[in-house]
Amino acid sequence: MAEAQNIPAGANTTGSIAVAAESTVATRMSAPPSYDVADFPVPHGREEEWRFTPLERLKGLHDGTATAEGGVKVDISAPEGVTVETVGRDDTRLGRAGKPVDRVAAQAYSAFEKATVVTVPKETALTEPIRVGIQGQGGVSFGHTVFELGAFAEAIVVIDHTGGGVRAANVEYVLGDGAKLTVVSVQDWDDTAVHCSQHNALVGRDATFKSVVVTFGGDVVRLHPRVNYAGPGGEAELYGLYFTDNGQHQEHRLMVDHEVPNCRSNVVYKGALQGEEAHAVWIGDVLIRASATGTDTYELNRNLVLTDGARVDSVPNLEIETGEIVGAGHASATGRFDDEQLFYLMARGVPEQDARRLVVRGFFAELVQQIGLPDLQERLIAKIEEELEASVA
């Protein structure tokens, strides 16, 4: 498996199955964050933040021609003590975790009619997860959801996307001091769905945020997880698992902004690809500002290419403005099956196809285990098995 680590800015490594490149974080945005769509020019695909995205397949989300004539069915199951509210656009809790950073996110923020705010009171430790089911009913829809944890609260949130249609939505996670939040966002859309979403997390003093993003379905899925820190001692762990099939475009663009001293972040995303024109994009941006002394950060992206014709664009970016840090690094690797692993299994009597399945399951195992919910873990393992069956059919 070829590895790219600490590549000089602007370097390119190209091949039949993968592209890995790097540029500095500061050059990545063509416009500053804003709630106003007009502040973002219509992208043409030459912009740094849009150069990998098939704009013609976004169904008008990027140029303002998409109108909200569709809908989604939302089902929220929350344990006792959790407050679920439907609020208007003027609610002061909206937008606290961060502004939209591209035109689609701004379009989603400008177009939703009602938002959902889910609140876990301070010092409340939930023993059951908050489960949110979002089922697309066709057409175009926009949305906005806020999850807010009070000081020293603890919760697990599962957001499950299914069905079809075109969806643009922003999600906010606001963690009070000492709070602990684990979020699992599953994209299991129908094959024709389009989904663009910005996830903003604001991590309080000594708070812990864990995000697990799982992407299987959809024609085009473009997610933008972002982390900011509101106080020192915050920790963020961002995990991701994606399985990209023939013709699918799955794009994960991460940003961790270290502006506060003594905070930590760890990013691990892994993907498998199969089929002609399967395209996965992973962008990992980490910015350590001059004020963020004592930062400890690392990001890793690995991709396993199962068939010819697939393409990966993996772009780790690390910008450091202070030398007073604990550590910082990144790595990106893309390749085919490890021949030594296959040989080891086959030499012990395991048939080749079974050996391949075991290798892929092992590849994803550490990420699935981060979820901590046995029923969901079993479902995702079954989905991976289903994808693998398709690759050998």
Describe what this molecule looks like in 3D.
Belongs to the iron-sulfur cluster assembly SufBD family. This is Fe-S cluster assembly protein SufD. Residues 135-363 form the SUF system FeS cluster assembly SufBD core domain. InterPro entries: Fe-S_cluster_assembly_SufBD (IPR055346), SUF_FeS_clus_asmbl_SufBD_core (IPR000825), SUF_FeS_clus_asmbl_SufBD_sf (IPR037284), SUF_FeS_clus_asmbl_SufD (IPR011542). With 393 residues, this protein is mainly beta. It has 2 domains: 2-338, no CATH class; 339-393, no CATH class. It has 4 helices and 19 strands. It has helices at 103-111, 339-347, 352-368, 374-392; strands at residues 2-4, 12-14, 18-21, 72-77, 83-87, 115-120, 130-149, 154-175, 180-187, 194-203, 208-215, 220-229, 235-244, 249-258, 264-273, 279-288, 296-305, 311-320, 327-335. The chain has a 19-stranded mixed beta sheet that branches. Strand 2 and strand 3 (18-21) form a beta hairpin. Helix 2 packs across helix 3. The longest helix is centred in the C-terminal third of the chain and has 19 residues, at 374-392. The radius of gyration is 20 Å and the shape is globular.
Question: What are the main properties of this structure?
Answer:
mainly beta, disordered N terminus, 393 residues, 2 domains, 19-stranded mixed beta sheet, SUF_FeS_clus_asmbl_SufD, SUF_FeS_clus_asmbl_SufBD_core
Short description:
It comes from Streptomyces taklimakanensis. By secondary structure, the chain is mainly beta.
